[in-house]
Amino acid sequence: MKRLINLRPERAARLALSALPFAFVIGLYLVSSELRLAANPNDKLLPALPQLYAAIDRLAFTANVRSGQYDFWFDTLASLRRLVFGVGISALLGLCLGVASGVIPYVRAGASPVVTAISMVPPMAVLPILFIVFGLGEIAKVVLVVFGVAPVIVRDMQLRAMEIPQELTIKAQTLGASSWQYILRVVLPQVMPRLITCIRLSLGPAWLFVIAAEAIAATEGLGYRIFLVRRYLAMDVILPYVVWITLLALVMDHALRWLQKRMYPWAESEHEARPAP
Predict the structure, then answer these.
(1) Which among 1, 40, 96, 121 would be 20 to 30 A from 170, CA to CA?
(2) How far is it, in rounded angstroms, from Cα 153 to Cα 159?
(3) Is residue 83 within 8 Å of residue 136, measured between CB atoms?
(4) pTM of the complete model
(5) Residue ranges per domain, the chain?
(6) How many CA atoms, within 13 angstroms, populate the side-chain half-sphere of residue 164?
């Protein structure tokens, strides 16, 4: 039936609709920048494109005189290292503890209340504690990401494991599968697509924790650079860094979605009527 909820855009229309908000934001920025600079050529709030290009060229393609490093790429590698380690450890903990809690009632009885309580604690509230316990080095920053992301993944994995139809559990046990075989051959194939989705949804909070930790105690990183230059109102540096963080997150999200489609096409086909966000 021709209802608005039943109409789906073609590929070209979908791409155009996706690009339209970005084009609107860019156009609005260019117009606003032009108006502000016309009124005050020394305005720093909305720098013109040549100023943004000059800042990018200085940070990404010109070596720092003191360190000899390219600050933009050095900051990027530092932040990505913290993010990947934090999210990777969180995913491993979430998979192991979440599956165990969802499948084994004794584990669920002991672990589920603790994980639920930890997931309710604001991660930024414990950041000073982490710096006191682990120091100002890399460990505290990675632990902050794990503290903020892992409990959510654990709970989601537990729920997904508990949603497996009882018929599959009964059939596996009837065929003689042990608990370990049941987890490996029945549970893991069911929860792995959801794990990738959880990682995708956790990228935003993970980036937030990395940037916050770098802003407080770091000597390199994207968050460190942003908060270092904010005292000078250097929007020509802050804006490219914010855009770059967004692009990195989008690339990681699309890479994970591609991996999910490639490894678990059956999971994607189940949601064709409702595409993943």
Answers:
(1) 96
(2) 10
(3) no
(4) 0.87
(5) 75-265
(6) 24
